[in-house]
């Protein structure tokens, strides 16, 4: 069972919108774009324990905080989820609520003209539509909400009260038992990690206990009995016993207490299941020490790995492929190799994984077709579709996974021909940042610009169409070619937001042609005694300008690329913005100006297939 489509109306930052899932899904986008909102919406529809929080929703869960219209009538939160790949048990349990779904068109066939005749067409499958409805109830002065089967609409069976019947307009509730069959698990970011490892309802430890089999009733009864019958009792501690006796003596003047010493006492808790759930904590002794401490006292990374260990347990208990697993930002406090390991595990062991992330180490584990880029405008209209399969060639993505992952997270991309250019632009950006007012220039890193190494002469043009299709502000810079560009190259270059052709053949020649000789001399003086200095004559202060430029060109060519970084060292010796090469300075300031013209919260990429962009 997996989620195919999620529609959201009037929930948090989303006025209206939908997201399509193709299986395992990575949700990416800028901050506050709606990633966490989608996970929370899924939890409202599918989470077995989520609806037992009181209130189910509150004022801040309504879009712009509006839960009443101008006439004082309630405005509803509506979250619709469509589930497909139903198990045999789900088909049996939910018979009568499933509908025929055209998976190519992403629509129910009974909504189309003559839909009954299309019920057995290719690509038409059974789907289960569910809906969460939440609103403010004026009579109770409280917020209410519940999840329902969204088809068919009719008389509900054995509803708890009239209020819920009214809320669902006759729909049948989708109960906690139904939700458990879906196997939905939601792991929030570590800001709620303490709850994930407690015994509170819906936590990971609670999920392990619940999935592990029967016996929970006896466990709680036995635990509460043991707490009450501690020997010696907590109240027998000398200091507490004295206080207990004083309280009994003084209260006895005003209240008819039971006879004997047991009329007052101290116990470990309220001796209720819920209180024990709140206070019981897992203790762990980690190397090199042997002392047990509450898990929350461990390092952040260790807590995350403990969560990961529980996920492996849950996957086994749920028979792996039956789990719909949502996880927010698994990269928090985890080193890159662990990020990769966690991501690979959930992709291999969970039936459907829905992950949010800002980490390229996580992103690179997903195929392009599994990545959904979210976009939300100022009016709260949310869109999210899988990447158009024609936008990124699978072979290119596999070869350049890390670079594409960083580009997907960026606001803009600068595509260059090689590692020499890729290494010098950040240094030039630093020079500008240090010498221009902050209002006039922002560093590439702070502006959210990634540099993409196209990997060779003539390679820049072919990425123009790629990044244009990904909805990116994209910029290209390439060397003056030996021969005129082909028609295809010219056509691809036109897809860039802006591009530049170097007036020189070779980046080294461009740098030396457009930089003051004083900067070149500083550079040669600084590198002459380096251990990696090439086998060229060392710089002498008495050298004339042509000799110094010739030597610098030989040194730069001998130490190309980012391994030595000599071109970046040369640029780093610019003391002012004016000393930077004119072409490099123009590229960086143009990118800055283009980004300034696009509000940051509106330039989230939109990697939508052409036919989907109209939705």
Classify the helix fraction into a percent range: 25-40%
Number of helices: 23
Rg result: 32 Å
Unreliable stretches (pLDDT < 50, length at least 5) are 154-161, 601-615
Estimated share of beta-strand residues: 15-25%
Number of strands: 19
Task: Choose one word for the global shape.
Answer: globular
Q: Total domains, how many?
A: 3
How would you sum up this structure, described in words?
The strands form three sheets. Strands 1, 2, 3, 4, 5, 6, 7, 8, 9, 12, 13, 14 and 15 form a 13-stranded mixed sheet that branches. The protein has a four-stranded parallel sheet with strand order 17-16-18-19, with helices on both faces. The two termini are 26 Å apart. Residues 154-161 and 601-615 have low confidence and may be disordered. Helix content is 35%, strand content 17%. The chain folds into three domains: 22-48 and 183-197 and 281-387 and 606-615, 3-Layer(aba) Sandwich (Rossmann fold), CATH 3.40.50; 50-175, no CATH class; 412-597, no CATH class. The protein is an alpha/beta fold and 615 residues long. A hairpin with an 8-residue loop joins strand 10 and strand 11. It is built from 23 helices and 19 strands.
